[in-house]
Specification:
The chain is an alpha+beta fold. Helices cover 26% and strands 18% of the residues.
């Protein structure tokens, strides 16, 4: 049986101390392949506990951060919105500041998982979900995400759920989060703290493409703790946004393709600005500002939306079993933009 130390710090500084390499290790600490004790923070545990049950992840130290004062949802001091790392997904989706100011985020969260999981899952934990596939869960199969250098069983295997963009010869897994797709479109910023101080990470730079190191999902350094997420003011996009998720079944399923779309449409009817991000297609939420820029000044019609889709998918490559994702993604982008142009539908079903 693998030894496990469970710690419940009462403040952020104590949590960081337990997560950092300089923290006092427990007796007979288990170390990973690099010679470092594996330390993980836990909040809702909706992803980590599953992975521990399957012995995909076997941390020797769990730092329970639920007692930390990081659950606020409030207006940010400089404008925009602050989402605490420990605020639960359900509380976030139904908060008036999110529903009214960032309906795209509310819609994306409500498209994910089940109500029970949304009640448990934290915002910070959602960002730290492991990018994964069926082979990642199967410890009997080679997987570069679990064991760097062992190979990728998905390449040449069952690839229906796998990436069409940004993949590498080492990994073709896709990022599972719906919330993160909306955060990418809304240009969120992730705030982290460590023993060395605090820093801000633009959402576009938070998650990584696999490259030669697919076991690294994010750009977080060891010992860094997510404290909150901020969103810039986005009133121009609130009236015309949509989250479209295509999946195998109607609930509790990861996206084959998802699209977060938001438009700023002027009084003349022309598009003044656009935000588009894709989920289910890459190792991280996929966004290309060039596609958004191509919509500016255009009428919000299928032709313009198709041009943006072609830019977003210009580098798409199928793996055989997921070739259908490329035309599916194009159709989904056009449809999501058409839905956004028609006007935001609130989570309760009515228009804004």
């Amino acid at each position: 049986m693998r030894p496990l130390t469970f710690i419940q710090p009462r403040d952020v500084a104590a949590a960081i101390a337990q997560l950092s390499p300089s923290g006092s290790p427990p007796p007979a600490a288990v170390v990973d392949a690099a010679g470092l004790e594996e330390r993980r923070c836990i909040a809702g545990g909706t992803n980590l506990i599953d992975l521990m049950k399957e012995r995909v992840m076997t941390p020797s130290r769990l730092v329970d951060i639920n007692a930390l004062p990081l659950a606020a949802i409030e207006a940010a001091p400089g404008g925009g919105l602050l989402l605490g790392a420990l605020a639960r997904n359900a509380d976030t989706a139904f908060h008036p500041l999110v529903e009214n100011g960032y309906p795209l985020l509310a819609a994306a969260i409500l498209a994910g998982a089940s109500p029970q999981i949304r009640n448990m899952a934290s915002n910070g934990g959602n960002l730290l979900q492991r990018t994964r596939c069926i082979y990642f869960y199967d410890v009997a199969m080679p997987c570069n995400k679990r064991a760097p250098g062992s190979g990728c069983s998905a390449i040449g295997g069952i690839t229906r759920q796998h990436a069409i963009l940004g993949a590498s010869e080492h990994c073709i897994a896709t990022h599972p989060s719906d919330m993160c797709v909306a955060l990418a479109a809304l240009e969120a910023v992730v705030h982290v703290q460590s023993g060395a101080g605090s820093r801000e990470i633009a959402f576009a730079g938070f998650h990584r493409l696999p490259g030669a190191q697919p076991h690294l999902d994010t750009t977080l350094a060891q010992g860094e703790l997510i404290t909150h997420i901020t969103l810039p003011p986005a009133p121009r996009y609130a009236a015309h946004s949509a989250y479209l998720k295509l999946r195998e079944r109607s609930s509790y399923a990861f996206a084959l393709v998802s699209v977060a779309a938001a438009l700023d449409i002027g009084f003349s009817g022309a598009i003044r600005g656009a935000r588009i991000a894709l989920g289910g297609v890459a190792h991280k939420p996929w966004r290309m500002p060039e596609a958004e820029a191509a919509l500016e000044g255009s009428r919000p019609d299928a032709a313009a939306f198709g041009r943006a889709a072609d830019i977003l998918l210009a580098a798409a490559v199928g793996q055989g079993g997921n070739d259908f994702k490329i035309p599916m993604a194009r159709n989904a982008i056009v449809r999501a933009l058409e839905m956004a142009a028609a006007g935001t539908i609130q989570p309760h079903g009515g228009p804004r």
